[in-house]
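Q: Hi! Curious about what HIG1 domain family member 1B isoform X2 looks like structurally. Here's the sequence.
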Amino acid sequence: MSANKGWWVPPEGEDSVSQKFLRKTRESPLVPVGLGGCLAVAAYRIYRLKARGSTKMSIHLIHTRVAAQACAVGAVMLGAVYTMYRDYIKRIAQDPGEK
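A: Let's find out. The predicted structure is below.
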């Protein structure tokens, strides 16, 4: 038996976790942007938790959730617009004679 029993090694022919993440990032680059924006908003709002004043905790958390979701939804919308542009507008511009 090996000494590193606790480490997970992917089976032959499968990608490691980091290789899979990099591949997925290349396929859809705005997913990590949305995730990063969501985490940045959540971290900032948690940092500002002490300075919330007389606002109730539940209201502060709801505003944090809404702001984080807005980042994620914005990234999804940008990805959809980019995909539509790539699939339809760019393709039509490359094939002007064919219809």
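A: A fun detail: The mean pLDDT is 81.
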